[in-house]
């Protein structure tokens, strides 16, 4: 129990530290992944963001992840540690010190990712909708709006794709971290301060590699969570206009009825096309298909470089602060 408590506290502190460090690049990533984003590059998008919305915009939605994703980090590290201890308890040779295989590390990471699903989905949904809003909104405002539209169910918009993303990504995350520690020959007897640069580098690599591996899935997840879905749309969408259900008063008001009907019909088709394009994604497959048709394969890698640049320092800090905090708690 004491080990799990230490993992929980250290995971929360490490997660909060990493989130604050990475907030500006996280906001940039959300803007680059948005379906409404122009084709501007990362640097131009960042300049426009600061110019028109101020530097405060770089920390939009940060309260939700500090309260939520830091909590997720706590659950993540508790679950990961618990699964490794389970492997330890069920091994055959109890005489030797337990050193988990990298396969066990990967499986424990996957399990930890699944365990955090209930926490991850609403937290990231609130964060993303706050980040892409051009009107400044607090975390509480965004939460209330989602709840008012769809209740508790609305907070789990994009839930399945979040689980699909998190299980393998956290497996890779811990696998790379543990693997790098072994390559760099981190000496646990020296303490986290003496191993600082090794732990920072291992954590940074874990973040960069795990994000690279699952980035296309994250783009799909983000697009699904960026949508503002009304209950009527969730139930099946609105009726789209067609030339057959146009208001006849529009036709009679034109000087040339034949020409008017043709123009109105074209307008109706355009409206129908636009509404089909802008309607909420019906499924994960629908999101992938429509995103690809609209923007090509490159859409699934839009914002990758800022994410990698963010992932390295964020996870370097997260793991190092986790190790320092854990060491402190164990020495109390």
TrEMBL record:
* GO MF term list: transmembrane transporter activity
The lineage's top-level taxon is Eukaryota
Q: Does the keyword Transcription regulation apply?
A: no
- What is the name attached to this protein's record? Mitochondrial carrier domain-containing protein
Q: One short Pfam family name for this protein?
A: Mito_carr
Q: An example Gene Ontology cellular component term from the record?
A: mitochondrial membrane
**Membrane topology classification:** Multi-pass membrane protein
Q: Which UniProt keywords apply?
A: Membrane, Mitochondrion, Repeat, Transmembrane, Transmembrane helix, Transport
User: Is the keyword Transmembrane helix in the record?
Assistant: yes
Q: Where is this region: Disordered?
A: 248-267
**Which locations, inside or outside the cell, does it occupy?**
Mitochondrion membrane
* Parts of the chain that traverse the membrane: 62-83, 95-119
Species of origin: Syncephalastrum racemosum (Filamentous fungus)
Q: Which family does it belong to?
A: Belongs to the mitochondrial carrier (TC 2.A.29) family.
> Solcar repeats at which positions?
2-86, 103-183, 194-328
């Amino acid at each position: 129990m004491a080990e799990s408590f230490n993992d929980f506290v250290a995971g929360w502190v490490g997660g909060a530290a990493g989130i604050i460090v990475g907030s500006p690049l996280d906001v940039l990533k959300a803007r680059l992944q948005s379906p409404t984003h122009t084709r501007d590059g990362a640097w131009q998008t960042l300049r426009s963001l600061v110019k028109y919305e101020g530097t405060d915009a770089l920390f939009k939605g940060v309260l939700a992840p500090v309260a939520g994703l830091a909590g997720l980090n706590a659950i993540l590290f508790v679950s990961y540690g618990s699964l490794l201890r389970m492997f330890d308890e069920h091994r055959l040779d109890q005489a030797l010190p337990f050193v988990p295989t990298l396969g066990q590390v990967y499986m424990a990471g996957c399990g930890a990712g699944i365990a955090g699903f209930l926490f991850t989905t609403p937290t990231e949904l609130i964060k993303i909708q706050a980040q892409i809003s051009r009107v400044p909104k607090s975390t509480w405002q965004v939460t209330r709006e989602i709840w008012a539209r769809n209740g508790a169910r609305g907070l789990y918009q994009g839930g399945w794709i979040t689980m699909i993303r998190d299980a393998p990504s956290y497996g890779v995350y811990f696998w790379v971290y543990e693997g790098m520690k072994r390559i760099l020959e981190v000496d646990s007897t020296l303490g986290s301060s003496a191993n600082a640069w090794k732990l920072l580098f291992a954590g940074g690599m874990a973040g960069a590699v795990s994000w690279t591996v699952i980035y296309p899935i994250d783009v799909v997840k983000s697009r699904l969570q960026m949508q503002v879905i009304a209950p009527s749309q969730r139930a099946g969408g609105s009726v789209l206009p067609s030339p057959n259900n146009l208001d006849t008063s529009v036709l009679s008001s034109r000087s040339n009825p034949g020409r008017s009907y043709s123009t109105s019909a074209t307008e109706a088709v355009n409206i129908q096309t636009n509404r089909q394009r802008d309607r909420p994604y019906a499924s994960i497959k629908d999101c992938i298909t429509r995103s690809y048709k609209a923007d090509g394969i490159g859409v699934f890698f839009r914002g990758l470089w800022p994410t990698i640049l963010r992932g390295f320092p964020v996870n370097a800090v997260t793991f190092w602060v986790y190790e320092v905090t854990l060491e402190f708690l164990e020495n109390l």
